[in-house]
Amino acid sequence: MPEGPELHLASLYVNKMCEGLVFTGAVEKSEVNKNPEVPFCCDAYCIKAQSRGKEVRLTLTPIKTDDDGKRKVSKHHSQQPMDVVFRFGMSGFFRFTSVDDLPKHAHLRFYTNENPRRVLSFEDTRRFGSWHPNGTWQKDRGPCVMFEYESFRENVLSHLSERAFDKPICEVLLNQKYFNGIGNYLRSEIMFRLQIPPFVKARTVLEGLVLEDEDKKKVKKEIAVVESTDKTGKKGVKVETPDLLSLCHTVPLEVVKLGDNGYAPAKGKYSALQAWMQCYSVEGMNSLGDHNGRTVWFKGDPGPMVPKGAKSRKIMWKRQTDDHDYTDSKKAKKTRTESTAKEKPAKKKDNIKVKKETANSKIQNASKRQTKGTKRATVDNKKPKTQGKKSSKAGTNRIKGQRVEKVIKTKRNSVTCRKSATKAKPQGKSSGTRRGRSK
């Protein structure tokens, strides 16, 4: 998520924390991270940071003293400054803590020369970030939209004939070759303020802009708005409305003005940034995936270049509130659970009553079946063979823990029928054989 404003805030944070501090020793890398080692080791050095678009550069400068000329310097000790260029990926940021409070995902560490020691670490939970020792600004990236506005504007308008501008404007805004520092949430906010459909050809949006002579001068940080009538009665002068390129310059600077309240990954707070957003992940706005799979937020018609089969994405960024409201919400949740816990025993009693009623109804049905069974048994006493089979089925049934016995009044008759049946069978066979012999 870190974009141009967040990386600039990170550089300001490093300069603030490291001001006046002396660092010492070697730069340590975690064993898990696959980025290269930083071959820098010095008894005393200082750290300064600078940002450009979506990159941050740390400059490690050795501190020379009068004793350095007298003593021998080891070959492993660095005598020249080193630039380390960072790209934050999805979750990278800097943190300054004590050694005991070293974060779990601190993948690159710079230690201070003090007691107790402290450490500046590059923390990256998802490990998408990277660093490059002796690195420079990436050549494929264009001028910074915030601090190189003149060259940024000229770079875009002088390359409108290239094929890159045949794509939708929402996708071109993420092209760091022309819009270095613009990310996913910034593009949505910029297009929303001008009511530009995201899936319109970029060239059609930008070709109306013409290079002005004033581009060579320093551009103000914010574009002036129509001034209201002052106390003297003089009316304000109406200034031209901002265009897409000028908003690419001013909107990121608005986030920078939020300061640490806007983006504080170490504290996990984003409430000020979320309150500032007007479109990105805001309820009531539309969202679609572009041709690169990135979600773009907008309002109204998406435009004619929507990807085939694109569906609305209901991915909402959880809104954060201040600490007071957060604790209140927790208390509310606890009271709900307590109320539901109190109501549960009453529900159990009702369930027991229902179970008893169903059990009683089943017992009554079983007794009715028993009476029918006894009637059938009395009728079937005349048929000894069948009666023997039915009597074998007499037994007990269980209905939810309750034992129901089948009472058969004609038990003695069934026993006599069995005996008579067993005696009758051999006689029939013998008589049959005698008849056969007689024949």
Notes on the protein architecture:
This protein is α+β, with helices and mostly antiparallel strands. It has helices spanning 4-18, 149-157, 169-172, 184-194, 202-206, 244-258, 271-276, 323-379, 384-391, 411-438; strands at 23-26, 28-29, 41-52, 55-62, 82-87, 92-98, 106-111, 118-124, 130-133, 286-289, 295-298, 396-399, 402-405. Helix 9 packs across helix 10 (411-438). The longest helix has 57 residues, at 323-379. The termini are far apart. Residues 213-218, 225-238, 321-344, 385-412 and 427-439 have low confidence and may be disordered.
Layout of secondary structure:
Blueprint: H1 4-18, E1 23-26, E2 28-29, E3 41-52, E4 55-62, E5 82-87, E6 92-98, E7 106-111, E8 118-124, E9 130-133, H2 149-157, H3 169-172, H4 184-194, H5 202-206, H6 244-258, H7 271-276, E10 286-289, E11 295-298, H8 323-379, H9 384-391, E12 396-399, E13 402-405, H10 411-438
Antiparallel strand pairs: 1-3, 2-7, 3-4, 4-5, 5-9, 6-8, 7-8, 10-11, 12-13
Determine the number of helices (DSSP H or I, runs of at least 4 residues).
Answer: 10
Silhouette:
flat
| Mean pLDDT level | 76
The end-to-end distance, rounded to whole angstroms, is: 108 Å
Summarize the amount of helix as a percent range. Answer: 25-40%
Rg from alpha-carbon coordinates:
42 Å
Please write the string of helix (H) and strand (E) elements. Answer: HEEEEEEEEEHHHHHHEEHHEEH
Percent of sequence in beta strands: 15-25%
Sheet having the most strands: 5 strands, antiparallel
Low-pLDDT parts are 213-218, 225-238, 321-344, 385-412, 427-439
Task: Kindly state the number of beta strands.
Answer: 13
